[in-house]
Amino acid sequence: MKLLVVGSGGREHTLAWKLAQSPVAQTIYCAPGNAGCSQQGELVELDVEDLTALADFAEDHDVDLTLVGPELPLVMGIAEVFAERGLALYGPSQAAAQVEGSKRFTDELLDKYGISNKKFAVFDDLVSANAYVRQQGAPIVVKADGLAAGKGVKVAQTIEEAERHIEACFVDKTFGEAGEVVVIEECLVGQECSIKVFTDGETVVPMVPSQDYKRIGDGDTGDNTGGMGCYSPVPVLDDETFWYIVDEMITPTVRGLAEEGCPYCGTLYAGCILTPDGPEILEFNCRFGDPESQVVLPRLESDLVEILQATVEGRLDEVDVRWRDQKAVCVVVASGGYPGGYEKGKPITGLEEAEADGAVTVFHAGTAMQDGQLVTSGGRVLGVTALGQTFAEARDRAYQAVGKISFENMYCRSDIALRAVEA
Ligand code: GLY
Hints:
This protein folds into 4 domains: 2-94, Rossmann fold; 125-180, ATP-grasp fold, A domain (Dna Ligase, domain 1, 2-Layer Sandwich), CATH 3.30.1490.20; 191-318, D-amino Acid Aminotransferase, Chain A, domain 1; 327-422, Phosphoribosylglycinamide synthetase, C-terminal domain (Glycinamide Ribonucleotide Synthetase, Chain A, domain 4). It has 15 helices and 23 strands. α8 runs antiparallel to α9. It starts with a strand and ends with a helix. By secondary structure, the chain is an alpha+beta fold. It binds glycine.
C-alpha cells in the first residue's frame, strides 16, 4: 500500500514509524514531514493547508490511504476534498472536526446529551462576558471559540487576567475570527490525562491512556508549551474510571455527533480531568496527540494500517486491537528559549548512541537536514521515548538516551514521569 502522512511534527514521525512496521506498507510519503520521517519514507514539500495540492498528490501517486496528523487541515475540510475525489483518508469530516474547531459546539453538544455537568456560558460581546466573569469570580477559564494555535485558552487566576483575555479576543482581535465568540467555563481542579479512541462512527476502540506535561519548567512552572513530555499508562486513572470515560462520555459523544448529522470517523482525543466529583471532559481534539502519540503508538502491538483501513471502511469491529503491557516515557528535547524565541540550525549529535538501547526510539519533531548534517529546525526538536517493565526503568532509559544527545542550547525538563514512578 501507498500511504501519505500529512504533518511535520513528532506525532507525524511517530505515525510514519508505526505505519512503516506494517507488512502491507510499501511506500510512505510525508507532507511535509521532517528529517526523521525521511527514515521511513519520502518527504513531499507540500503545505498542510494546501488541501487541493495534497489531494492532487494523492491522486497522481495512487496513494491508497492518507492519514492526517494536525487539526488544521481537518477543520478546513480535507476529508471532504479527498472524498469528492474518491480518495481514502483517515480523519473526521469538517462538521465532525468542530469538536476541536469550536469550543462552543463541544460544550453545547456535551450539555445537550447530558455528558458533562461543566458550567459554561457563551458570549459575543465584551460587556456581557466581563459581567459574567465578575459574577462568577476567579479562577475561571476563558476560551476563544475557534482554533488559535494553542493560545486561545486562558486559565485565568484573577478576574483581571480573564478580562485581559476577553479583551484580546473582542478588542485586540488577537485570534482573528477564532475569537469572535468566547466560551467561559468553570475552572475544574484535578489531574489531567487523555484518552484517545479509534472510531468509525459506530464502534469505539480506546487507545491506552496517557498524561502529558504542558509547562516548560520542572514542577509544572513557566509558560505553556506544545508538550514537554508524556507517559503511558496513567497510574492515577483506575480501570473503572477509564471505562466510565470511554463508555459514558466518549461513546455517547460519538453517538451524539451521529445524531447531529456529523458522524465521526477517525481518532477522537478526549482531554479529561479527574476531579473530586468524578471525571470531566476538558476538551476534545479531532486527531492523535503530540507528544501523546510518542508514548501511545510504541505500545500498540497491532498493525496500525489495518486499524486505519478498517476504520475508514466502517468495519472497526472486525479488528483485534492489542496493546503491550509495558510503560512508556517520552522526554521532549527542545531548543533553549522555547516556547519563546530560539535559534535554529544547530547541529545535532548522538542519536545513534541514544538508540543503541533497543527499548529507545528517538522521534523527530523540529529537525531538518542541512548539507548532510542533522540540525534543529523548531522549538520542540526530538521526543525520546523508552519502554520498560516499570516506569522507573522506562524513565531511566529515556533520560540516559537524552544524555547522549547534544546540540547547542538543548533543553529538557528533568521531572518527566517522576510522579508515575512515585505513584
Ligand atoms: N498534547 C496535547 C495535544 O496534543 O493537544
